[in-house]
Amino acid sequence: MRTTNNVISSHVLHDLQTVAERLARTQRKLSTGREIGQVEDDPVGAGRAMFLRGQLEDLRQFDRNIDEAQGWMAASELSMSAVQDMMKRAKELVVQAANGTIDQSGLNNIAAEITQLIGAARQAMNGTFAGRYVFSGTATLAQPYPPPGLAYAGDANTMLRVVGQGELIDVNIRGYEAFSVPPTAAGQTVLELLEQIRADLVAGNRAAIGGADLQGIDAMVDGLSSARALVGARINRLDTQQSTLKDLALNVEDLLSKTEDADMAKTMIDYSMQQSIYESALQSGARVMQPSLLDFLR
Amino acid sequence: MGVSTFNGINIALRGLLAQQRALDVTTHNIANASTEGYTRQEALLQAADPISNVSLWGMVFPGQLGQGVTVDSYRRIRDVFNDVQLRGAASEQASLDVRYRELHAISLAMPEPSDYGLRSQLQRFFESWHEVANAPESLAARHALAQSGQSLATTFNHTARVLADMRVNDDAEITAGIGEMNAILAGVAELNTQIGQLVLAGAELDPATLQIVRPGQAPNDLLDRRDLLLDKLAEIADITSVTYDDQNRATVVVAGLTVVTPAAGATPVTRAQLDAQFASATLTGGQLHGLLEAHGNMLNEANPASYISQLNLLAQSLHDAVNAQHALGIDLSGTAGGVFFDMSAPAGPPGAATRLRMSAALLATPNLIAAGGAGQGPGSATNANAMIALQDALTTGGATFRNYYNGLQSGLGATTQSTQRSLEAQGIIVGGLADRRSSTSDVSLDEEMTSMIRFQHAYAAASRILSAMDENLDRLINGTGRVGL
To answer: CA A30 from chain center: how many Å?
Structure first.
């Protein structure tokens, strides 16, 4: 093939541009640490990376939701255990009162302590998490047991949290589920029971104190125990869910990194190889373009 | 009868003149070594008509006596078949080049993978719903959600505007391209006239048909200029055919339209004609093809497969699904939810992606965000949870929002990548053909130097012969009859 000066120079230029472009692309991989700078670099890989990143962000969000739900349930649990302790104290007092050796003034003193317990229980039952009443159903901005009433004032709605894709978990214990016997909105509340005990104490109704009141307390403690067991089970489930999510997130992160991140060692080697190719292309280009017959004619 | 004493001088003169012309051509070549579109030329030397000296008395002479050299013609060294191939390949390359540029620009308008792109904004939007679900009473979470909705809508708007601007720009480029093409056509028609006249001047005609049998002058440099114009034309739009008549005047057919004829000259191409040729797939190459492809297909809101239409579909689905769900919930004060995304402007172009707005009322008063379920208290996140479930619902053309968007991106990426690969492959084809043309038609300085030395030597030798003859004549005229002096 007849080769002319123009062909040589345009070839040299074209080759230099190709090598320089390749060099720039590798350099970009090195500086960003990413294999895929744009979708067009690897459409399939980029599609997968976008999917994985969405998944990873979902998992992190679920993790935050679980933290939040755990906090909510821990607050509920705290209140319930406090009320249970109070019920135990109330049982001691009631057993003491049922014992025939205490006179009416002694009963009145016990009644005074029960009044204190009513106040303390109300405070615990109006427990909050981040300024929201945990036992109110969804009416979280109002107290479930507002004074001076003794009945449940919240609603019957459950509160669901998303803790996995399409996975919802009930986080709230409605007040009556823990603090009423039977556990319905119509059941007797802790406050009502204590008030009844107090009234029986003041009236000196020992038969009721030793009978219905004592049984009421036992039933109430049973109810609280099962509600606490329920919350405990949920907390456990969330713990399991959270560690599963963390494992999953690690896997996804690993996969994402494999898809998206540049192999630094390989990229570095590529870079130095391309650099030496570029330099030799420059050198040979400079040599081949310079001479012509003119240089040798006198 | 003998041959004239001075015949040799004449032969030497012809030699001198011919070598001079050949050297002139070499000079012309060297001068134009880097002229775009220049084709190297050479002087075709031919032995001059010899003398057939037939005597009256039938004396036999040795034969015809050579009379030196003349320049028969100046030849332009060019491969016409290669031109046709190169122009076809260059048209395809120009179209691919524009298409790649446009696709790349579209990708840049929707940058992915990125922490700020539409994918991220969609994700943030639903994450904000999660946060509202975690604390529906919290004004802070509601404010954050309203802002996420706002930036999602703004991202849609911005992307749609960039794509719309690109389309407007393409329109301007098409107009400019047509203008350039029409100027080239006028140039070709003008050159046709000049070339025709020169070929006709001194041409030998067939007496019966009046067709040119042997052309007159060879207008090499004008032919170069016309070929260069045709090369440029091929980059703007694909050339269907170029045919030449006996006067070497070209009839040019571009994208199926006969645009230059020897008789009628140039016929300017209009936008409407070009659109029709594009629609009927008769326009298949050149920048205009790439631009019309971008303008009519990739960026056209009226084309359901275009990227802007896909974006519009996504925005519309988001608007419809979110608003429908929002209306089912109640806000903090227990009132049913109103409009979440506002698209109150009339339907039709501009599309949904341009018109999507976050409701101003919700932005100002985030308490109006309907996160709760009907009949429930302020702590209810029933509707927020339903909103979160939309993220995994098949809302958009049988896919979830993000899968649809991922699909859009993957499709765009794959098209961009394959266009880039075709462009690279086409570059190699065009490069090869251009090399072949260069190899045939380009000036090689080494070769011209060699020719120069050849002609220089021939010229010097002819001069030396002239001197020898001069000496001979001097001897004859001044020395004859002076014996002994």
So the answer is: 35
> Which residue in this structure is represented by tokens 């691919």?
B96
pLDDT along chain B (485 residues), means of 10: 79 94 95 92 92 62 82 91 95 96 94 88 95 92 95 94 95 96 97 94 87 87 96 96 93 96 95 95 95 94 93 95 95 91 77 91 93 89 94 92 94 94 94 92 91 94 93 89 74
* Cβ within 8 Å of B, A 171-230: 172
Q: Is A276 on the interface with B (CB under 8 A)?
A: no
**Tokens coding A239:** 């713990």
**How distant is the Cα of B436 from the closest Cα of chain A, in angstroms?**
8
Q: Say how far apart CA A42 and CA A260 lie, in whole Å.
A: 10
Instruction: Give the mean pLDDT of A203-212.
Output: 88
pLDDT at position B58: 56
A225 backbone dihedrals φ, ψ, rounded to 5°? -60, -45
CB atoms within 10 A of CB B88: 19
Three-state DSSP class for residue A147: coil
Q: Which positions in chain B touch A261 (Cβ < 8 Å)?
A: none
Which residues are A261's β-sheet partners? Answer: A34
* Euclidean distance between CA atoms A45 and B440, whole angstroms: 46
Each domain of chain A, given as residue ranges in start order, spans: 52-256
Specify whether domain A52-256 bears CATH 1.20.1330.10: yes
In chain A, residues 78-107 whose CB comes closer than 8 Å to chain B: none
Provide, rounded to the nearest whole percent, the portion of chain A with pLDDT above 90: 62
ipTM here: 0.87
Q: What is the pLDDT of residues B210-235, one digit of tens each?
A: 888 888 888 999 999 999 999 999 99
* Whether A158 contacts A170, CB under 8 Å: yes
What residue spans define the domains of chain B?
A: 7-77+448-476, 84-90+172-298, 119-163+306-431
pLDDT of residue B347: 65
**Cβ contact B381–A160 (<8 Å):** yes
First to last CA, chain A: 28
| CA-to-CA dists, residue A119 to A80, A110, A122, A224, angstroms | 15, 14, 5, 18
Give the burial class of B73: count Cβ atoms within 10 A of its Cβ; 0-12 exposed, 13-18 middle, 19 or more buried: middle
Q: Rounded to an integer, what distance in angstroms lies between the CA atom of residue B352 and that of residue B157?
A: 9
CA-based nearest residue to A215, from A238, A193, A242, A189: A193
DSSP B45: E
Interface contact flag, A297 B123, Cβ < 8 Å: no
Residues recorded for chain B? 485
Characterise A204 by phi-psi region: left (phi > 0), alpha (psi -120 to 50), beta (else): left
Under a CB-based contact definition with an 8 Å cutoff, are residues B206 and B289 in contact?
no
Residue B401 in tokens? 């929002």
